[in-house]
């Protein structure tokens, strides 16, 4: 095994500024512990305020993670004069409405994926960004980790030859039947919760234009009309390469793989979405078979570093609003090709 890069040391972004983010959190979602609270505390950023539908849950979250105070509403978090970054991990259908409100209040936003309920909503958020000059990033945290950056390097270098095919599989065990991820109204479904990672990764690895969905099929979650339990899609990439996506929110185990196949070799990421849990990148060519370890520092830490550099230091975001719109357009196209409705909008 080759250690290509040791990534547990502080990055240049971390050393970039003595300033720290002042963060407001919308909701007390379980993901927030790993995706935001941990990275914020490790980075020395301030968790200023949190609000949730149930104040008791917000208080418990604040107590666990050192949030300075609890607000009565999401609107109070956005209006807080100390907050410079709003983190939005609400249900999918609530991403765009609250992102727009935060941007109009002059706050930078880190929005959980998917960026919006559908592409039209994503374009409306993009319009607000252009109107306000605001800062927002979709939280595809995996894209800031050395595993994904290394995959891009290898594909672009020609080491595996000309790109021929990309495959991505995203599977998790089924959430409880009353989980918001099974709600059509809240923009749930396997493609929204998981497959958006695969589609974004395919877009990232294929250069020179956007992928086109050629076919898709899926199965509806029993008891949840219009909500996909699993979806499989075939895409055509610029230059004639192809891609395959399989995403299921009712599998026996967790699978999060990404493979790029070229004319002379292949490269595999064993867990591209949670690379800190499995940081291996395997490269197979005529010259041999090697595995590189890219480091187990959390992808969420890299993500918050990037956001801090943008908000506090004016650095470019690794993922901009146009990237978010393009991914949502591909999500919508996949749903339509599979015979599912596009997720309903909740933006007024």
Verbal overview:
By secondary structure, this protein is of the alpha/beta class. An 8-stranded mixed sheet has the order 8-9-10-7-11-12-13-14. Strands 3-2-1-4-5-6 form a 6-stranded parallel sheet, sandwiched between helices. The longest helix has 17 residues. The N and C termini lie far apart (53 Å).
| Stretches with pLDDT under 50, minimum 5 residues | 1-17
Shape: globular
What portion of residues belong to β-strands? 15-25%
Strand order in the sheet with the most strands: 8-9-10-7-11-12-13-14
- Counting helices, strands and paired strands, the structural category is alpha/beta
Gist?
With 348 residues, the protein is an alpha/beta fold. 34% of the residues lie in helices and 24% in strands.
Tags for this entry?
single chain, 10 helices
Task: List the SSEs and their pairings.
Blueprint: H1 12-15, E1 22-26, H2 31-43, E2 46-51, H3 55-65, E3 69-70, H4 74-79, E4 85-88, H5 95-104, E5 108-111, H6 119-132, E6 136-138, H7 146-157, E7 163-171, H8 190-205, E8 212-220, E9 228-236, E10 242-248, E11 255-262, E12 265-269, E13 280-285, E14 288-293, H9 299-313, H10 321-337
Parallel strand pairs: 1-2, 1-4, 2-3, 4-5, 5-6, 7-10
Antiparallel strand pairs: 7-11, 8-9, 9-10, 11-12, 12-13, 13-14
